[in-house]
Every structure is written in C-alpha cells, then in structure tokens.
Design brief:
The protein is an all-alpha fold and 70 residues long. It has four helices and no strands. The longest helix is centred in the middle third of the chain and has 27 residues, at 23-49. It is extended.
C-alpha cells in the first residue's frame, strides 16, 4: 500500500501570493486557503448530488468578449 504524503505546511501558491509575509503569516494563510477550498468542494459535491451542476455551468459556446475585433 502506498503511503499518502502529508501536504506542506505552507502552500506554494500562498507563498507566491504573499512573498513578503512571515512564515507564521504564510501558515495561517495556508490554513485559511485550505478551509476555503474545503467549503468550495462541499458546495460542488452538494450541487453534484442534487444534479444542479448544469444550472451553474451553462457557458455560451462562444464568448464574444474573447473573439471581439475592433
């Protein structure tokens, strides 16, 4: 059985976003960021279970903002 690797104490993305922060600030920001992601994941799972993902993911085939020529 493969052993699961522990996540780093400080997420690299947090370090990127806060280059001048102390290690304590980075650790706190990482904890907050992971909690935020957990909430988003629970929302996703709930919408998926209710069959409502298509309601919120109804994007147009072509986004005219991207293809607009001046």
């Amino acid at each position: 059985m493969r052993k699961i690797k522990e996540p780093p104490e400080i997420a690299e993305i947090v370090r990127h976003w806060m280059p001048n922060a102390s290690d304590e600030e980075l650790k706190e920001a990482t904890v907050n960021f992971r909690a935020y992601l957990a909430v988003l994941y629970r929302i996703f799972l709930r919408l998926e279970a209710e069959g409502r993902l298509d309601e919120i993911c109804d994007f147009p085939e072509e986004d005219d903002r991207v293809n607009r020529r001046k």
